[in-house]
């Protein structure tokens, strides 16, 4: 294997023995803005509106975002086989959902299979059930709090 690949999570998780809970949006706003479609790689600004507001993505851009989501789901394939690991991947366009009580655990929190992030983590942590929650493709989840930016996310 190319040594540079060792830093990618897809490879790192193969050697982790301690159970881990993976929690991430499939359309992580920071990743979309800084990895998938960074400003420096978009001199014509064709991704500008999509980077700031997922509802403004063209059908072609949405297709690319769906591919980005599929890559994440593919990376979860091995993790899904680990009974003591947990997964919660929603289809929201957001970043750092766990820092905000509205998105973490409230009546209006995003849900996957009718579970909030906090409920899923609690079920996993207290061994109430195996948690492998992977959401459907955008725009399927009406519980999402999709962010709209006036300028790219810097955090």
Automatic annotation (TrEMBL):
Any single biological process term in GO: cell wall organization
Keyword RNA-binding on entry: no
Listed EC numbers: 3.1.1.-
UniProtKB keywords: Cell wall, Cell wall biogenesis/degradation, Hydrolase, Secreted
Localization in the cell: Secreted, Cell wall
Coiled coil location: none
Single GO MF annotation: hydrolase activity
Pfam families per UniProt: PAE
Top-level taxonomic group: Eukaryota
Classification via InterPro entries: PAE/NOTUM
Main location, first listed in the record: secreted
Function recorded in the entry: Hydrolyzes acetyl esters in homogalacturonan regions of pectin. In type I primary cell wall, galacturonic acid residues of pectin can be acetylated at the O-2 and O-3 positions. Decreasing the degree of acetylation of pectin gels in vitro alters their physical properties.
Family: Belongs to the pectinacetylesterase family.
Protein name: Pectin acetylesterase
Source organism: Aegilops tauschii subsp. strangulata (Goatgrass)
């Amino acid at each position: 294997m190319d040594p540079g690949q060792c830093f990618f999570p897809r490879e790192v998780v193969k050697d982790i023995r301690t159970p881990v809970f993976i929690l991430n949006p499939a359309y992580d706003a920071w990743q979309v803005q800084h990895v998938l479609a960074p400003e420096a790689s978009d001199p014509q600004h064709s991704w500008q509106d999509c980077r700031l507001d997922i509802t403004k993505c063209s059908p072609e851009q949405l297709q690319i975002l769906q591919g980005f989501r599929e890559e994440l789901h593919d990376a979860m394939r091995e993790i899904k086989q680990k009974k003591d690991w947990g997964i919660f991947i929603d289809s929201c366009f957001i970043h750092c959902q766990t820092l905000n009580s509205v998105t973490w655990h409230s009546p209006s929190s995003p849900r996957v299979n009718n579970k909030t992030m906090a409920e899923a983590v609690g079920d996993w942590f207290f061994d109430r059930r195996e948690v492998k929650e992977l959401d459907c493709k955008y725009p399927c989840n009406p519980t999402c709090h999709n962010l709209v930016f006036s300028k790219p996310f810097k955090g």
